[in-house]
Amino acid sequence: MATPPVFMYHSISPSSLPDPHRLRVHPDRLDRHLRLLRRFGYRGVSLSELLRAQERGEARGLVGLTFDDGYTDYLEHALPALRRYGMTSTLYAVAGRLGGSNEWDDGPRLGLMDRDQLRAVAAAGQEVGSHTMTHPHLAGTGADFLMAEIGGSREVLQDVLQEEIASFCYPYGEFDDDAAAAVRAAGYDHGCVIGDYEPADRFTLPRCYISPRDTSAHLIARMMRHSVRLRLH
Ligand SMILES: [Zn+2]
């Protein structure tokens, strides 16, 4: 399936704490990325909006925007930028860590949105998707574990938001056939990975990682690389 480019961000913050996993993009840089997309006639949208548009044959001029892990800085720094440019995104929350921190990671502790903050994200017209219960490595695990992490997190988020959760994102981008099958079985509409443009289907949608140093020129280069690779198929 030829999906338009989908960009993957994590934390959006002006913080100067160490960033060993290169997860932080400065708010000014995000603003420049979105401004550039608009100047080139592109609009950033959530993954569900992107796939619906694609099904209608109307995805031209759209790119997907995703923010992993559900950091509280999304509310302070990403949402205002998205609003400035009239764009939407999918935010992937770790459903068993709401109101907690990124304890799966050995870098600096970053706050994760709580239930009320997630509701505020949805009320602002943004999509909330699932990023499992605890942010584990899913590949090679058993059926019960997959269902608890993948299906369980969908139930938690649906309870918080009182709406269908359609979008799933594999932690670390890691998946195998069993994990992708569990995402489908849990009732999600689609799932996304990191990089790797093939073999892509609805449950392994590719995404472009955006690094802290990516300039607007890098963004354009990544979009061009994406479309060239799709044409080679
Ligand atoms: Zn993550």
UniProtKB/TrEMBL annotation:
Q: What region holds the NodB homology domain?
A: 61-233
User: What Gene3D superfamilies does UniProt report for this protein, alphabetically?
Assistant: Glycoside hydrolase/deacetylase
Q: Report keywords, A-Z.
A: Hydrolase, Signal
Q: What is its main location?
A: secreted
**Pfam families given in the database record:** Polysacc_deac_1
Q: Please give the InterPro entries that the UniProt record associates with this protein.
A: Glyco_hydro/deAcase_b/a-brl, NODB_dom, Polysacch_Deacetylase
Q: Look up the EC number in the record and give it.
A: 3.-.-.-
Please provide, alphabetically and separated by semicolons, the GO molecular function terms listed in this UniProt record.
hydrolase activity
Localization in the cell: Secreted
Matching PANTHER family: POLY-BETA-1,6-N-ACETYL-D-GLUCOSAMINE N-DEACETYLASE, PTHR34216
Protein's name in the database = Polysaccharide deacetylase family protein
Organism whose genome encodes this protein: Arthrobacter burdickii
